[in-house]
Amino acid sequence: MPRVFWVNSLAQPGVRLAVLLAMLTIAAFILLLGRPSFTNASKPPRFGDPTLALQFARDVQDVDWILGDAPSPDREVMRLKQYADFGFIACYTGLFLALAALAIRKGGWKQVTGIAAGICGLAAGVFDVLENRAILNILDVPLRATTPAMIQAIRGPSTAKWILAGVTVVLLATSFIRTPKTS
């Protein structure tokens, strides 16, 4: 009896690693969505999620709406979420690199997109770490001492991270599109 196509693909080297990293990435994402939760005092001006809203905070007023003044329970929840996010970063960066390695093995133009995807995926992870460090730096600072430069230290890497992650996904998607074989 013939095997289903995806069973044969699991036997290829690197595919099992990519599947494992995909499952770990999903598990880490679910962990980030879980407890602890933000209080009702957290009212992000944009986006429904305080973590995402803080990544794009424009000024001290946005930080106040999201976290309140230091110390606050929402700041401690944000601190825990940021520490868990480091694990998520490791998972998705590993997944991007594993998928890029699979694309590189295909050769031709897919090799070039795989290399570009690997570079962009790794850069997205680096910018995410920079963003998390900037968020952790702002958590102990009272609102009156929060400067626009501190907020920009979050916004800049966050914007770069989201752009690079999007580019990586597009590059990987184009790498794995099946092209019809000509006879």
What does the secondary structure layout of this molecule look like, with pairings?
Blueprint lengths: L4 H6 L4 H19 L16 H6 L4 H8 L5 H32 L4 H30 L9 H28 L8
Low-confidence stretches: none
Distance between the termini: 27 Å
Radius of gyration: 20 Å
Q: What is the number of E strands?
A: 0
- Beta-strand percentage range: under 5%
Sequence of secondary-structure elements: HHHHHHH
Helix content: over 70%
The residue-averaged pLDDT reads: 87
Which structural class matches the secondary elements?
mainly alpha
Q: Can you tell me the number of structural domains?
A: 1
Q: Biggest sheet: strands, sense, closure?
A: none
- Our count of helices gives 7
Which of globular, elongated, flat, extended, rod-shaped describes the shape? elongated
